[in-house]
Amino acid sequence: MKHYSQPFKGIGRFCIQLIQFPEDLVHIHEWVNMPYAEFWGLQGKTKEQVVEEYANIIKSGTQVFIGWLDNEPQFLIEVYDPKKDPLSQHYSVCDGDIGLHILVAPPNKYVHNFTFFVLCCVLDFLFNHFQAIRVVIEPDYRNKKMHKLSIRVGFSFNDVIYLKHKKSYLGFCSRDIFYQQISMETLI
Q1: What does the pLDDT look like over 5-34, one tens digit per residue?
Q2: What is the per-residue pLDDT for 109?
Q3: What does the alpha-carbon distance between residue 140 and residue 45 come to, in Å, rounded to a whole number?
Q4: DSSP SS3 for 102
């Protein structure tokens, strides 16, 4: 099952579902053109170029999901197998590793620590519906907000790596560390 629905106390119901292609690309085009989305490398691209980019991403085997809060689209996640990605050249991939890219839109309503709750939702989704043992991320080294937030939910960053298109921190979060770090009982 690749659909997730979970209420979070005082926030609302988060849902995650596979992208509806190309209908959901309207949201993605808007999000990747936000000033803070510079790390996605799609700023200034037309809707057609974003559709083409995501057609190629999906064709490569990456699964793309849209996250919703109370029926409003709010975030994008790309879930990939690190064994089939150039990232595998930078660490020893283990069975149960899942790669993650995440982009959060500005919330439609104010929610204190919104991106924190989104990241908790996404990790809970990956650990439960994908049976991930460890989630791997490689955020741009300049993305200080994501580093701080990732550490807060249990990621550790060991190395700076040089990918084809960016300098990144390589981060890992195991299922056990996440659930120790974040008591889901306080969220759900």
Answers
A1: 988 888 899 999 999 988 898 899 999 999
A2: 80
A3: 20
A4: strand
**CA 104 to mean position of chain CA atoms:** 8
pLDDT above 50 for 96: yes
| Chain mean position to CA 123 | 9
Do the beta carbons of residue 160 and residue 141 sit within 8 Å? yes
Does residue 173 contact residue 127 with C-beta atoms inside 8 Å? Answer: no
Q: Determine if the pTM surpasses 0.85.
A: yes
Please, what is the angle between helix 144-152 and helix 114-129, to 10°?
A: 60
Distances in Å between the Cα of 103 and the Cα atoms of 9, 49, 66, 95 are 22, 18, 10, 25
pLDDT score at 1: 38
Element (H, E) at 15: strand 12-18
